Recover the amino acids of this structure.
């Protein structure tokens, strides 16, 4: 197979590229990435010289960049490219519309024109809005009810995928996953932000009281789910990807503090995220039943391995935190409550 992975320099895209090159010795990968603040070619330094891998810098929202990356054609497109951070979407939604909606449309047009055999849209459970307790679950049929500009943009892209399948029979599959965690995640998301702040001796900002909860999937389990969906998924279908491992932000904070030998004095309770979804909980039964996938990594084990990775890879995250992230932090975080009208 020849696969176009978009957003392959980001967290999950880079992990997936390495997973495929190792598992399938005859597969070729083209990585199309715009290299936004979240794109980092260092994530791929160990495979950059692999003859079965090519990097193309470009924007999924530009048809000419997509055409250049696809060349004569590919067997599949896996669309990881997106603006992904809820807090950034609250401060400035524009780029989210461009990439997550228009970019998805541009890729769908390439598939409709016959340039790719199929497309797998990587999306999020956040399109469903929120659940109120850990027993309530999102199924594939749950109505979209997004809360943030991020989740609304992802919902827009996902709905274009369903519309293209219904209208043109464009071969596309949509996935809705719970929260990812693992090595190489940009240190603006909860787990890597807290781990790296603690390693730097800084405080960790818990929004509200930390009682909101998320469901978590380790990188390797998500790669295996996409592998199953790419090869055995039914075109036009939607698959939820979940683990039923649900933890409140406070529970995660405690676990990270323990792993790093720190105490609760490091916590700083800050104003809550506007429109903050209380909980995400995914029903993954369809994927497990129909494609035989199941998650393997227990949250406590995956979290320990992740924290260990951040401990051992200071150079990776220190470069990020002293560069673009520092500028973002100074501009938006230092006076976050004022910017978000929380004061
Ligand atoms: P990330 O933010 O780490 O990386 C995104 C990548 O996309 C970066 O390399 C960036 O340069 C690239 N990119 C952004 N705009 C682009 C454009 N216009 N053209 C080409 N490349 C562009 O993302 P991630 O956390 O690995 O998430 C990957 C995908 O998974 C996203 O679609 C996201 O919505 C989805 N998802 C993420 C989570 C999560 O917990 N992180 C959960 C469910 C679904
Ligand atoms: P995040 O990693 O941004 O993922 P998402 O909002 O897409 O699920 O946040 C995960 C949870 O952690 C969410 O409930 C918000 C909370 N959070 C904090 O309490 N403090 C922080 O600094 C961040 C980034 C997140």
């Amino acid at each position: 197979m020849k696969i176009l992975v978009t957003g392959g320099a980001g967290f999950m895209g880079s992990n997936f590229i390495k997973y495929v090159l190792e598992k399938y010795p005859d597969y070729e990968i083209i990585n199309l990435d715009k290299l936004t603040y979240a794109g980092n070619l260092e994530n791929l330094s160990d495979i950059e010289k692999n003859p079965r891998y090519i990097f193309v810098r470009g924007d999924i929202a530009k048809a000419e960049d997509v055409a250049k990356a696809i060349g004569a054609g590919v067997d599949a497109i896996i669309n990881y490219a997106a603006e992904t951070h809820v807090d950034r979407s609250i401060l400035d939604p524009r780029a989210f519309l461009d990439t997550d909606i228009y970019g998805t449309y541009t890729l769908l047009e390439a598939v409709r024109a016959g340039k790719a055999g199929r497309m797998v849209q990587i999306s999020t459970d956040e399109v469903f809005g929120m659940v109120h307790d850990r027993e309530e679950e999102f199924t594939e049929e749950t109505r979209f009810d997004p809360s943030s500009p991020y989740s609304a943009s992802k919902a827009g892209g996902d709905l274009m995928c369903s519309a293209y399948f219904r209208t043109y029979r464009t071969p596309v599959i949509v996935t809705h996953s719970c929260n990812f965690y693992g090595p190489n995640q940009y240190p603006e998301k909860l787990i890597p932000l807290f781990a790296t702040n603690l390693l730097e001796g800084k405080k960790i900002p818990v929004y509200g009281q930390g009682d909101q909860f998320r469901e978590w999937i380790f990188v390797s389990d998500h790669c295996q789910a996409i592998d199953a969906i790419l090869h055995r998924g039914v075109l036009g279908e939607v698959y939820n990807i979940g683990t039923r491992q649900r933890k409140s932000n406070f529970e995660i904070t405690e676990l990270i503090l323990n792993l790093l030998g720190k105490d609760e004095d490091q916590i700083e309770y800050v104003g809550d995220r506007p429109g903050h979804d209380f909980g995400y909980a995914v029903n993954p039964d369809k994927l497990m039943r129909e494609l035989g996938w199941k998650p393997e990594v227990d949250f406590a084990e995956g979290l320990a391995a992740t924290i260990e990775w951040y401990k051992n890879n200071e150079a990776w995250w220190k470069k990020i935190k002293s560069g673009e992230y520092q500028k973002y932090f100074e501009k938006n975080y230092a006076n976050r409550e004022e910017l978000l009208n929380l004061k």
